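Materials and Methods. Structural model of Phosphoribosylformylglycinamidine synthase subunit PurQ. The 222-residue sequence of Phosphoribosylformylglycinamidine synthase subunit PurQ from Ruficoccus amylovorans was retrieved and submitted for structure prediction as follows.
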Amino acid sequence: MRVAILQFPGSNCDTDALHAMRDVLEVDAQLVWHKEDSLSGYDAVVLPGGFSYGDYLRCGAIARFSPVMAALKDFAEAGGPVIGICNGFQILCEAGLLPGALVRNTGLEFRCLTSELVVEASNEYFNPEKLGSRIHIPIAHGEGNYRIDAEGLEKLEANKQVLFRYAENPNGSLNDIAGIRSERGNVIGMMPHPERAVEAFMPSCDGVPVLRAFLELAAVAP
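The predicted structure was written out as tokens:
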């Protein structure tokens, strides 16, 4: 399996994601610069955290126009698995690959802490039996407040597209939402950083089963 980790100007969690995938989970992971126009040969794609383009305008608003995003949309539309972490989640929402938007945290404070997440029974890959009913994953964001209109929220809940909820909401997200998937299930977005919870010296190792679940999804992708 080959995993592409996209790099935008301002990405700063790209090497963390590379380490988690390549050194901890032992998959063939490579950094892919945002000016590439093809994702041919890759089985899964990671959009890492950071501050793409300095978060000018809105988080992810400029990155969505990078050349690689056209290839990413084609990849996702063909059923390819994609995970966006923190800024990557914001980019996926701006690009229309996930519903909703991420806005400034309630209180306008940057939140950096280890967050307890409630794992929802979303599908065969992301559920409490596989990941544990509660996991601990670090967050580090100023714009993690998930927003969506009432109709969209109802649809998310009805389709079981919510993957994770905050046990104690740190940012004001609607329904305590910390992570979601697309209706088809192959595009995932989450504000917490699973790549920062993969080794004993980190706040937890709960990011390992999360990333493994994503790779299991990739293994059966068309």
